[in-house]
Amino acid sequence: MKTEVDISIIIPTYNRLWSLPQAIESCLNNKCTVEIIVIDDGSTDDTFQWLSVQNDIVVLKQQHWGKCWAVNKAFARARGKYIRFLDSDDRMVHGANDEQFQLAETNLSDIVVSGYILTDENNQTLKRQLWTECDDFIAQQLGECDSSHYSAYLFRKSFIKEIPHRPDYAFRDDRLFVLEAALKHPNITIHPGYGLLHTSHEKSKLQKSHGIQQVAQNFQHLNIYKNILAQLRQNDQLTARRIKASVKILWPLCHWIAKNDINDAVNLLNWIIELDPDFRIPEKGLVGALYQILGFKLTEQILSIRRAVKYG
User: Fold this and answer.
1) Would you say the C-alpha torsion 226, 230, 231, 233 has a positive or negative sign?
2) Cα–Cα nearest to 13, from 58, 56, 48
């Protein structure tokens, strides 16, 4: 029979022995009881061998099926009353686990949110972002304002137990996960500080993609919004505010999709206008003038030719 601990920290990893020890170290030295579950997604850089000789870590291993499968497998083993998902190239801010745990217990929170500190590979601070207070958590997650990073969130396990990380949306799994949690109208508590040290680096990241991966990422991103907005509409919760928040994300996505498939981009633009009949392309300067004079499709074709000439 499982013995519950206060927090389970789930760390999926793949070929990140260069950062994993620091991620694990940042999760130690808590007043509350914490279990660290690291799942190696088929690494080839001796990650599993290193993990095998570590103490006080739950170590799991799988073939290289990806982050979503790894996280779901670890979640099934987790004993924590609360769950944190931490990328293996990030770190926790000292004391955040205890502070968020106490807030969760005091306020009967489903999610305790927090800010984050963005650092470079040399641990130099690039940005400090406190949690942006917003009275509509769904609109915030749809794109109305900054929503921090989900590794800065502490989730009550019982609240998210029916929300898996979905492999079909692997490039945007964290965003979809939080949106699905938001649709359940969680009791949110704000941690008035920083929970996460988020690292900006040039090494491999799932969210950095090119070519066919970029096409897949855009497709997943668009379908997340189609599915979430459809659920909101079905439940009579698709407010004008939430539409405006979505369009803030959908318009840049429309521009990115146009780089690969102009017809799909045109269809997306038509959907944006259907959602918000008052929508106007927000670009300024010469590009904005081209959109107004030539229209979206022709302007995107010109931009495509310009990119081809510039980058060969």
Assistant:
1) positive
2) 48
**Res 3: pLDDT:** 78
Contact between 152 and 99 under an 8 Å Cβ cutoff? The reply is no
Checking if the pLDDT of 203 tops 90, the result is no
3-state secondary structure of 159: helix
Task: Name the band, by pLDDT with cuts 50, 70 and 90, for residue 183.
Answer: very high
CA-CA distances (angstroms) from residue 204 to 210, 292, 308?
A: 12, 39, 25
Predicted model pTM: 0.93
- Which residue from 250, 195, 191, 260 is spatially nearest to 224, judged by alpha carbons? 250
Higher pLDDT, 2 or 199: 199
Per-residue pLDDT averaged across 117-129, rounded?
93
Distance (Å) of CA 191 to CA 99, 100, 134, 311: 8, 6, 14, 45
Short-list 216, 279, 214, 237, CA closest to 142: 237
Nearest residue to 35 (alpha-carbon basis) of 87, 63, 74, 90: 74
What SS3 class is residue 26? Answer: coil
Alpha helices in the chain (DSSP H): 20-25, 47-52, 67-77, 96-107, 137-139, 157-160, 173-182, 212-234, 240-258, 262-275, 285-294, 296-311
Mean of the pLDDT values across residues 288-302? 93
